[in-house]
User: Which sequence fits this backbone?
């Protein structure tokens, strides 16, 4: 397992991070604890959760993921774990957070309320990386960065990051931090995969120039790049099998990840992996890690056995011909997720 620094901070993490967003819904507690143990034993020291997990968001189980992670955390030396969690951004028409009756925002009250609740559920007195879960472009960044700075000064948080942020928002936050003399975002957690390379358009350059690390989520495109949805298959219990049967945001997300273009690109990526003698999941994770602006790639599993293909990417560097073949697919089928 390789290690990289988060932004310009002192924190160094494994270049694979275990995500936990289905722990407590799709993945029960016993299986979640096995996944966490296996990940740690394999050399992963970086674990990511959020106050709004598990997904799909529902008030009946919100917060359960942090509770499971907190239970596991008690079995490990706290200083051996780099723990990340998030505060929910504002609830919009397209998404309603199950936290605080959906009245979430990135203002002083919400952030302070969220951090105390997360610390309690996780059973720890500090968070290594505290992230805004999605942007709040209607709340002044001055207020958001100022309260995050207070959390760091109070010892509740070591460093801060953002998630699902735009180029404008990331630069706006950095400008506010520089003007106010507060902490800055050291990381950005956005979607990035073989099927979704939009981060490379603008945000990658912001990260390079400003010293911010991407910690990408969905490197396997929500499981699509494993090939399990090929040929119109909808495996029982799979996330997008469920989402495509739902309404609203979940159905919209399902169609974004599983569509004619994404399945066509996946078919070609699978052929490249087969020719290279690789599991397509292994190739997808290795590809994500093989970018200069990426610090650690966030993976997720529905069962312990799915870790095998992911961990096979730990020290893998894809050869030049494989990277060129991948780029060719991306040129010929650009933006398959829209």
Assistant:
């Amino acid at each position: 397992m390789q290690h990289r620094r988060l932004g310009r901070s002192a924190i160094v993490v494994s270049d694979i991070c275990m995500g936990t967003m289905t722990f407590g819904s799709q993945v029960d507690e016993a299986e979640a604890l096995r996944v966490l143990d296996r990940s740690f034993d394999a050399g992963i020291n970086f674990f990511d959760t959020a106050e709004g997990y598990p997904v799909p968001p529902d008030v009946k189980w919100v917060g359960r993921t942090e509770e499971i992670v907190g239970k596991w955390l008690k079995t490990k030396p706290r200083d051996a774990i780099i723990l990340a969690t998030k505060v929910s951004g504002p609830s919009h028409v397209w998404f309603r957070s199950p936290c605080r009756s959906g009245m979430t925002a990135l203002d002083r009250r919400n952030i302070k309320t969220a951090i105390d609740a997360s610390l309690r559920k996780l059973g720890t007195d500090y968070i290594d990386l505290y992230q805004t879960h999605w942007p709040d472009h209607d709340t002044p960044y001055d207020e958001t960065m100022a309260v995050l700075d207070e959390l760091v000064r109070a010892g509740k948080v070591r460093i801060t990051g953002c998630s699902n942020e735009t180029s404008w928002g990331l630069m706006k936050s950095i400008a506010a931090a520089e003007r106010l003399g507060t902490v800055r975002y050291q990381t950005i957690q956005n979607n990035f995969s073989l099927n979704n390379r939009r981060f490379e358009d603008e945000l990658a350059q912001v990260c390079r120039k400003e010293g911010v690390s991407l910690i990408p989520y969905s490197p396997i495109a929500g499981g699509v790049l494993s090939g399990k949805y090929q040929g119109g298959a909808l495996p029982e219990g799979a996330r997008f099998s469920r989402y495509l049967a739902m309404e609203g945001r979940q159905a919209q997300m399902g169609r974004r990840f599983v569509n004619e273009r994404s399945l066509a690109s996946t078919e070609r990526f699978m052929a490249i992996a087969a020719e290279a003698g690789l599991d397509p999941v292994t190739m997808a994770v290795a590809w994500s890690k093989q970018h200069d602006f990426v610090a650690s790639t966030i993976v997720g599993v529905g069962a312990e056995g799915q870790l095998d293909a992911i961990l096979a990417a730990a020290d893998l560097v894809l050869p030049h011909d494989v990277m060129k073949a991948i780029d060719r697919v991306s040129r010929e089928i650009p933006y398959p997720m829209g």
Observations:
- The beta strands are 3-5, 12-14, 16-19, 46-48, 82-87, 127-132, 157-163, 185-189, 213-214, 297-299.
- The two ends are 33 Å apart (CA to CA).
